[in-house]
Every structure is written in structure tokens, then in C-alpha cells.
Amino acid sequence: IGSSILCLKETDSTNSVAFKMAEEGAPEGTVVIADTQSAGKGRLGRVWLSPPGVNLYCSVVLRPAIAPVAACQLTFLSVVAVARAVERCTRLKPQIKWPNDILINGKKVAGLLNEMNAETEKVNFVVLGIGVNLNLRMSTLSQGLLRHPATSLLEEGGEEVDRIRFTRVLLEELDQLYGDFLVEGDGPVRAEWLARSAIKGRSVKVSQQNREFRGVVQGVDSFGALLVLLSDGTLETVLSGDVALL
Ligand code: BTN
After folding, report:
1. What is the CATH number of the domain that holds 211?
2. Residue identifier of the C-alpha nearest atom 16 of ligand 1
3. Are residues 189 and 218 in the same domain?
4. Predicted ipTM?
5. Are residues 177 and 219 in the same domain?
6. Is the pTM of this model over 0.95?
7. Are 208 and 217 in contact (CB under 8 A)?
8. Pocket of ligand 1 (CB under 6 A)
9. At 167, which helix (H) or strand (E)?
10. Tell me: the pLDDT tens digits for 195-233?
């Protein structure tokens, strides 16, 4: 990963650029980085604010030989890579919130957006999109723009983070994790995800579109679903929703 890196001053979205390049045959491991994005994409069609000079916006093309239903396993991979990079580059302790948020002191510091091109049986390619707030001063943003409390490594750690070093460390961790994933499958990375997310055995409240329930987290399955045991003994497989610790 990172044997070919395209660095752009400005683009609409590094995910869109990487997706287009992958469609045109860009090899696995191709990375696209931009200093700023004019239309950074968040999950659920939201906008990812992407001011210049302070953060990391990057996208990585992967071509794993897996089925589309297994692609969420790559989300575990990027979450764990970001958590490791934060630990190597700062003294901060990142927390993981299912399914793929990375928080520090309860505030969001990074976001992940994977986009995939697949047929029924097999994945052609996946673009891992990773945005990390490194040296953003939150006071420069109007909080009204933010849906959830957000922060940056600088705000939480009090120290500037070297953007190039952070990027290098992140790509190194991704490369390592992806190599292990190809050999050993998703077991080890899922175990690390679970250990870091600190929700196993905890009571949670799950809020879905038209339903809310409480239960105890048993783990995650290999499709990325959260397994929650209800008080009546049924095991719920949660594929989407908002999960709050009780
Ligand atoms: C989220 O909603 O939490 C996901 C945010 C993902 C943002 C990153 S920044 C780099 C890449 N390019 C994009 O347009 N989005 C992702």
C-alpha cells in the first residue's frame, strides 16, 4: 500500500478520484491524498468538512479476492489502522464506536467511508476513504455545521501532529493489517477491533429508525454486525443504528 501516491492540492473528493482511477485499472495499493476537498463525502450522504492545511484526507484502492458481503471486514481494518496510528503519533487513547467512528474523550476525530465496485459474487475493488482531524482548531469552525461533537488530535493532545509522519505511519499500519488479513482472514483484526472498542459485555441502548432496545453486547460477527443479547434471551444481529453505552 502506498507504492503509488497521488498528492493533490485540491479536489472534490479523494474517494471519487480513487474510484475513477480504480475503474481505469489503477493497481491495488494506489493512494490518493488531498490538502483540501471541495465536496468531501461523509457517510449517509453527509458532507465531510475538509479545510486546507490541517487534516488528512486520503483514499486507498484495494482489490481483495472476497465476496461483497465480506467487504465490511475492511472497515475493521481501517478503524484499527487509524487507532494504531493515533497511538504511535500522540499520547492519546483513541476509542472505537461501532460501526466505524474513532473518538477521543467522546468526540469524533476521524471518519471512514468505504466505497465498493462489485458483482454479485466478487469484489472488483474497494476504496477505503479515511479522514482524520489532525491540527484543526475547532474554534475556526462554526459548531452549527457539525452533527456530532468533533475534535482534532491537536485539540485533545495540545501538540501539533506532523501530517507527513502521521500519513506514513497510517499507511504502514494499513499495509501490515491488510497483509495479515489476506493471510489469516478477518479474525485477528476483528479481535483487536473488539478489544479496542471496549463494548463487549457492556449494556447498550440501540436506536434504530422505528425501534429502540437494550441489551448486552456479545461481540461482532464477520459481517460487521453487532451481536446484542436481550433480556428475554434472544440474540439480535444489529446491522445499522446508533449504539449508546448505558
Ligand atoms: C464519516 O461520515 O464519518 C465518513 C467520513 C469520511 C471522510 C473521508 S476524507 C477522505 C475520503 N474522501 C471523501 O470524500 N471522504 C473520505
Report:
1. 2.30.30.100
2. 129
3. no
4. 0.99
5. no
6. no
7. no
8. 13-15, 37, 40-43, 46, 48, 57-59, 111-113, 129-131
9. helix 163-184
10. 898 788 999 999 988 899 999 999 988 888 899 999 999
